[in-house]
Each structure stands twice: as C-alpha cells, then as structure tokens.
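Journal club prep, notes for RB
We'll compare a predicted complex against what the paper describes. Inputs for the 4'-deoxy-4'-aminopyridoxal-5'-phosphate case:
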Amino acid sequence: MAPRSAPAVQPTRTTDLPTQRLDIQSIRAQIPALAQLVNGKPLVYLDSGATSLKPQIVIDALVDYYGGCCANVHRGVHTLSQRATTLLEQARETVQAYIGAPELHECIFVRGVTEGINLVANTWAQRHIGPGDEILITAMEHHSNIVPWQMLCERVGATLKVAPFDTRGVLDMDAFAALLSSRTKLVAAVQVSNALGTINPVVEMVQLAHAVGAKVLLDGAQAVPHGPVNVAALGCDFYVFSGHKVFAPTGIGVLWGRRALLEAGGPWHGGGDMIRRVTFEKSTYAELPALLEAGTPHIAGAIGLGAALRWQSALGLDLIAAHEADLLAYGTRLLEEIDGVRLIGTSPNKAGVLGFVLDGTIGAHPSDVGMLLDQQGVAVRTGHHCAEPVMDFFGIPGTVRASLAVYNNRGDLDALAAGVQKAIRLLS
Ligand code: PMP
C-alpha cells in the first residue's frame, strides 16, 4: 500500500466530490451487527463517533489469531510465535502506510488516544516542559486531551492555555495565534471535534506553532475514520488515533511521533520487551518501537487494526469522505427542518457529527431523547461526550449526537428525523 499524500479529512464541498460512488449495500452486508433488530426495529446505528461497528473481515482476523497462531510475539522461536510476530509487524506496516509515517518504528501500538496522549505527557513532555512553559490546547478538546496536560502542568509548573471557538464551533484562529509565544512548548489539538464535528485547520495551526518553536500533537480519533490522513503532509510531531473508532477492536490504537522526539522522551512503562539488558545494578533499554511497548501487546487487536485499515483503504478513503459529506448535508437539512431542533456545531468545515438539543421540550434531558430514539431502534449518544467545556460554552447539559460512518445511508437519517419528531411529540 503506497503512502497517500492528501493532507487531511477532506473534502466537504460538493465540487470536490469524486464521481465514483461506494456500494453502501454491499458495505452494510459486511457488518454483521447491522443485521439485527433492536426493540423490534432494524438497527439504525448512528453512534460510530463512540465506537464503530466491525466488518466481518476484522472479526475473522481475531478468530484466526485466537484459533490459529495464538502465541506470544517477539521472543519465540517456535512457528506459531513467529507467525504471530509476522502478523503483528505487518499490522505496523499497514499503520505506517495508512498514516504516511516516515519511519515504521515511529508507529507505537497503544491502547488508544487516551493512552497515547498520556504516554507523550509522561515522556517527551515530562522531560521538555518546565516551570513557566505553556501548553496550548483548544476549547473543543476531548477530556483525554485536557486532563493529562493539566496533570503535567501541576507536576512541572507549566501553564495550560486554551484557544476559544465561536458559536458555530469554529476555532478562533486570531486568538489561537495570539496565544502562541516563545513560552509555548506544545500545542495539543483535536483534528475533528467529537462534540461539534468541526474540522480544525490543523496544517495552519502546525505552521503557526512551529514558527514559535512549539511541537504539535494532533488527536486524530475522529479524523481517521472519515477520510485520508497523512502525518507528513500535516507536519505535526505526534499523532494519535484509536482503533475502535476505525472498524478495529477496542483496546488498540496508535501513537505516531517523530523518532527523535520519541527517543528523547525515553521509556515510560518499564518491563518486558522494552529492555536490552537487565541487571540489578542497571537496566538498558531497547530501541523503538519496543522502547515504548512494554509487556505483551494487544496482539489480536493490532492484527485486527491492520485488517480494519486495509478494509477501509480498499473502499477508498476519498470516496468515504465524499459519502459522509453527502450524508452530513442530508442529515443537517432534515434536522434543520424540524421545529425545535437546535444544532450544536455548525462549522462550515465539518465531518461526521450531528449534535443537537431540543428547545421547547419541557424539562427534557438529551438522554430522554436518546431513550425514545432507542425505542425506534435508533442508536445515538447523549450527554457531554467527554467534552464538558464545550457543553459549558453553550450552557447546556449535553447534546443528542448522531455520528456517521461509511456504512450509514440516507435511510438511517430519515429514521433519525422521524424518531426526533416522535420524541418532540412525546416530550412537549
Ligand atoms: N479524542 C476524541 C476526539 C475522541 O472522540 C475520543 C473518544 N470519544 C477520544 C479522544 C478518546 O479515545 P479513547 O477513549 O479511544 O482513548
């Protein structure tokens, strides 16, 4: 698989859309979980922002590992162990090609975005950020890109700065630029907001950050499922994503970082696999990626992630982005036409997320709406989506969030709109 060059999750303008179309029926047929009734209704799954459904090919990869070459990796001389090691390392190669990482050993398997960010906070950042330094995040971060930095700031005496967004959910780039200074050592920002759907201008953000000498970590959790991502083109220094949001198992994800920065961070977890030599007097450490992968990895998860990324890539990442842009526009129109629906997150540059509240439903909480939708077989997420500061900004307890993936179709959004209308009738 050749590295791709497209810069980010794009396109969203209809003029950019490729003319070729995906066969959504055939894609849906590959997702076993879609073939079920929920509360007597065909499942309409609009919660892929929380976790995606899995194609059969990914499930098969897990079954094949556990039922076949189920062995531990890296130190085994026996055949099964060597097979498992080959599969794990092939998955790493898939990841490298998928995100356009310059070096294979820069791709570290972690549990997900949360662990990847904590790893950077406890290694490179812990060693290179000190008293008086600043870390700049945005006001639309997931808690996993807030709390580890707060904890680090407390430990090292640095200050956390926050760039605001406007009422549409668009990042205020003037404020962002003004908050950067020679004190800024790190910018940690979400590429696509899980609460608002906003696609941030990350290439410009990276350039501005680098101009003051800051490193940049991008949270790609909600970007990777929706279209092509290339870390070299983005120009960032660290990139993290979670497998479970991109058709792979839970408990596996990727941290990519520039080799020099990962090496300068040194080890984090100590234990097996991350060492070169251990004595009671002193231990010496292995090279990347082993340096940052202590202990038995999530072997099946990594193999499943490889299968998932190959499956998604074979569909065509640009076609996925175009399909979802069409769904987003369609769903937005449907929801806007419903009296009482207020969309939260209306950036002109958006991906995959339809968040809303129902004005005028007396005392109704988003979770009431979620439960009524569930009765119709429509799965959405409700609440603050681990982005409490975003909800505070809008003065709401949470939103109802429908989030899209490649296997959704317009019928899913028709079902959502019908369910919302029914919920409004019942709650008003
Ligand atoms: N960042 C964003 C933007 C997310 O959407 C999520 C998951 N909702 C995370 C980080 C955390 O991912 P995980 O729980 O897989 O570590």
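Talking point for the session: The chain has two domains: 14-51+316-427, 59-313.
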